[in-house]
Write a structure and sequence with these properties.
The complex is a heterodimer. By secondary structure, chain A is an all-alpha fold. Chain A has 2 domains: about 80 residues; about 220 residues, no CATH class. In chain A, about 75% of the residues lie in helices and about 0% in strands. In chain A, helix 4 crosses helix 11 and helix 4 packs across helix 13. Chain A is elongated, with a radius of gyration of 30 Å. Chain A starts with a helix and ends in a 6-residue tail after the last helix. Chain B folds into 2 domains: about 160 residues, no CATH class; about 70 residues, no CATH class. Chain B is built from 10 helices and 4 strands; from the N terminus they run E-E-H-H-H-E-H-H-H-H-E-H-H-H. In chain B, a hairpin with a 5-residue loop joins strand 1 and strand 2. The two termini of chain B are about 35 Å apart. The chains are: A mainly alpha, B alpha+beta. At the A-B interface, helix 1, helix 2, helix 3, helix 8 and helix 11 of A face strand 2, helix 2, helix 4, helix 7 and helix 8 of B.
């Protein structure tokens, strides 16, 4: 058999496949009828077995190259993940995301630990060197805090919100992406954020303005810190997969961890929109501190009941056995 | 030009060959996509301005919502554009399509949304941490950056020129009506030599002087490989006639029927 006779006997089905590939718009077969898709699969299998023959008999020749290119274009049309539907996003946020976060609980706890250790270190630093606190807080900070809080003008609030959201999303994404560098940048970011918070808290505590200060942090902080901790957890998860792949190949472990981590990180980052709005509109407002704490508690309860409870399988309940009593004879 | 090729074993157990995309081509595709995603932001802002000014909405609430939405659009444009474009077009963003590139998973299938998400979120590290992705790509045999490694993907060149069935041209036999007298030592040649002769005979439109020179060169080498004596009759044939006869005999012997 020569390449010409080989091509002559089969090119009809190749050309048909070629036409199918060309008509698959935006790289998808979705518009084809079911019978056409079956036909496509048949043609593809035929072409790939022809390619196997060509690779053996006519290496490095035009037919082989042609068949290779044809199969390479047809292959991803047939082999692909399930198509994503927009409404599946609802299910993802309702159950998928909380389940994924719970599944990665050890990393979330480790991430929280980094933040806490940082905060503790910051607090201890100020406790040992109170003079650092004065440098940290601008002069008269505590006076202003007591008098009127930090009332931003309401015009600036939207701008502030957009800035805060962007900044936080960036921090969250860097926390995630740092995972690929063994999670070292992630751990550093968590520790440093904790450190800053700890030093500020300690310095303010020394000035005795705790109530007013925490009222400025907590309303949005509950959401924001939780998101940062979870994003940090995804970074640590990736780093851990590289360092301790277990029985899998390192690259396989990385791919699997990264997929889960990316889904968690991008889903959870959406919460930063809410946190940013609270930070811009609620935190600086004239609302009494009690109200701000209420906002904090409210968002905290909502967030954690969602994360911890949503998407759990219902526990099998002991059924009330009404039918047993019904079956009793009427007279007894 | 020669590119690195990767063989991917498909479910049909055929080794599909892919050409690994060059780093410069990928950078160029990235720049095109970056420009397009920037335009998305620009037109989103323009549309918002037009909408609010035309409708006469100037209230604080509308402005506030606008600013927040705009910030999100700007942020999402960078990641969202790449992710959504890759996931919905089976790995061919407009920039990649313009340069004939495609993202595939290392098993050859199309990237899913989560694959696209991973490789594009990790772009932060690849691009902004001292361009570490570039160094990783230089070192990696398949030019994968960190995002590719974590997502299990790679970028390949898609040759659209080879997807039209025109390469299968029959060799042109003009100088001999049949295979002619048998060439001695034919079993010293194999499939590789047949490809050489075939390729020469299928090539049309060569400058005559060049063609004669090339034919002489090829036939001398093949005659040496056949271990023909210096005074063998085959050496006296015109080179092109020799190649045509050799082709007919060799293809008959190697490919049967």
């Amino acid at each position: 058999m020569t390449p010409e006779s080989f091509a002559a006997t089969r090119q009809e089905s190749w050309r048909e496949l070629e036409a199918c590939v060309r008509s698959a718009r935006r790289g998808s077969l979705r518009r084809l009828a079911a019978s056409d898709i079956e036909r496509f699969a048949l043609l593809y299998r035929r072409a790939s077995s022809d390619l196997a023959i060509a690779l053996r008999d006519f290496p490095g020749q035009g037919v082989t190259e042609y068949l290779n290119a044809l199969c390479a274009r047809a292959h991803p049309l047939l082999y692909r993940g399930a198509p994503m539907r927009l409404w599946s996003l609802g299910g993802f946020f309702a159950t998928g995301l909380p389940r994924a976060v719970r599944g990665a609980a050890p990393y979330m706890l480790a991430s929280a630990a980094f933040l806490l250790v940082g905060a503790l270190a910051g607090w201890i630093t100020i406790a040992h060197r109170p003079d650092l606190g004065d440098a940290l807080l601008p002069a008269g900070f505590s006076n202003r805090l007591n008098r009127e809080g930090v009332h931003a003008s309401i015009q600036a609030a939207p701008l502030l919100a957009s800035f805060i959201i962007q900044n936080n999303v960036r921090v969250a994404l860097v926390c995630f992406a740092g995972g690929i560098l063994l999670g070292i940048p992630t751990a550093a970011i968590l520790f440093l954020n904790g450190w800053t918070l700890g030093m500020l808290g300690a310095a303010v505590h020394a000035g005795g303005d705790d109530g007013a200060f925490w009222a400025l942090i907590v309303p949005h902080g509950v959401l924001e810190l939780s998101v940062i901790v979870i994003a940090g957890g995804t970074g640590l998860m990736i780093g851990d997969a590289i360092l301790r792949p277990g029985l899998r190949r390192r690259s396989d472990a990385l791919v699997e961890a990264a997929r889960t981590a990316a889904v968690i990180a991008s889903g959870i980052a959406a919460l930063l929109i809410i946190a940013g709005c609270i930070e811009a509109f609620v935190t600086p407002s004239a609302m009494p501190d009690v109200g701000k704490y209420a906002v904090a508690v409210g968002t905290g309860v909502l967030l954690y009941s969602w994360l911890l409870l949503s998407g759990r399988k219902p526990r099998p309940r002991a059924r009330l056995r009404l039918d047993a009593s019904e079956r009793l004879p009427a007279g007894s | 030009m020669q590119y690195d090729t990767v063989r991917v074993r498909t479910a049909e157990n055929v080794g599909l060959g892919y050409e690994v995309a060059g780093i410069a081509t990928r950078l160029l595709a990235f720049l095109i996509d970056l420009l397009l995603s920037g335009m998305v932001v620009f037109f989103a802002a323009l549309a918002w301005l037009a909408l609010t000014s035309a409708g006469g909405f100037t209230g604080g609430a509308v402005q506030a919502a606008g600013l927040i939405i705009f910030a999100l659009v700007a942020l999402l444009a960078f990641f969202g554009y790449f992710t959504i474009a890759e996931a919905t077009t089976a790995g061919r963003t407009p920039g990649k399509r313009a340069l004939g590139l495609r993202v595939i998973r290392i098993d050859g299938s199309a990237p899913t949304l989560s694959d696209a998400l991973v490789r594009n979120l990790l772009r932060i590290v690849d691009v902004f941490v001292l361009g570490v992705g570039l160094f990783v790509m230089f070192a990696n045999s398949r030019s994968r950056r960190l995002g590719d490694i974590a997502a299990g993907t790679m970028v390949v060149r898609e040759r659209t020129s080879a997807t039209a069935l025109q390469q299968v041209v029959a060799p042109v036999i003009r100088r001999t009506p049949d295979a002619g007298p048998e060439v001695d030592g034919l079993d010293r040649l194999g499939a590789n030599e047949l490809v050489v002769v075939r390729t020469f005979l299928t090539r049309s439109g060569m400058e005559p002087r060049l063609r004669t020179g090339l034919a002489a060169d090829i036939s001398r080498r093949l005659q040496d490989r056949l271990q023909l004596a210096p005074d063998a009759p085959e050496r006296q044939w015109p080179p092109e006639l020799f190649l045509e006869r050799l082709y007919l005999q060799l293809s008959d012997r190697l490919q049967g029927e």
